[in-house]
């Protein structure tokens, strides 16, 4: 791996391009992710925003950004990014702008557009080799319309469209779509998962990707106090637990080669993560749904067992399956 300028949190760029104060919920993991992303990319950025929670930061005539922002409908962000990239390339070719005036084109999207509504358009953009960044703040549901199920919703989560009920006590039983692998199958130069609780890891990944041309994906698990049901002050602790329990692996794929950038050598039980959030509360009361908790734990264990085998290392699995 090449040398990095991000060794500790002290190396976080001081320059902030997101101004303080926004109409988003306190403790929003997505907003923090965007802040970090922008710090590393620098000022010369144009964001193309697929409809979602972060759209609410821009209530006319206010925009809390010191760069540029274009709003699009759910499925149109990759097309918007293509148009902007083409326009910039034409201006560069005609010497109407200098190379140092060029902008990085970044799609910002929630999981709704990334996993569901905009997936077809995104697939086309990756296939065309569009030179853009794609930043997903994944809060695992449609957050700004009331926390409805998306295909990023994990097993056991209650949402407003998959509530825990006598017909489905566990809430959602559908598997979360594997966006990392869907992107990787398209063979883009860079694909990564990131966490706002691992900012140094995130900044290094952004830095690494900046030397690459083509589609670059970042999926950030975005703790969502409003939808997940926890106190805003807990956002980072919960993001950390997602990594330590193995629920949210930190990894990257450069030209298709996957490596984990952090491997928890002793997984904490998934229960510790689930218990922190109201969306999983029905798994614990009025009656503990041990079968579902076991199922979630087994999926996590299976994943890390494969990683351990591939890496030739030992990972202590959480095996408190009763
Ligand atoms: S609903 Fe969740 S993702 Fe949306 S702004 Fe609020 S905290 Fe952020």
Number of domains: 1
**CATH level-1 class:** Alpha Beta
Alpha carbon gap, first and last residue: 42 Å
Biggest beta sheet summary: 8 strands, mixed
**Overall CATH architecture:** 3-Layer(aba) Sandwich
User: Kindly state the mean pLDDT as a whole number?
Assistant: 96
Instruction: Supply the CATH superfamily name.
Output: Thiamin diphosphate (ThDP)-binding fold, Pyr/PP domains
What would the CATH topology be?
Rossmann fold
Total DSSP E strands? 8
Give the uncertain stretches in residue-range form: none
Strand order of the main beta sheet, please?
2-1-3-4-6-5-7-8
Total helical segments? 10
Helical/strand content category: alpha/beta
Strand content: 15-25%
Residue share in helix: 25-40%
Give every kind of bound small molecule, once each: iron/sulfur cluster
Order of helices and strands: HEEHEHHEHEHEHHEEHH
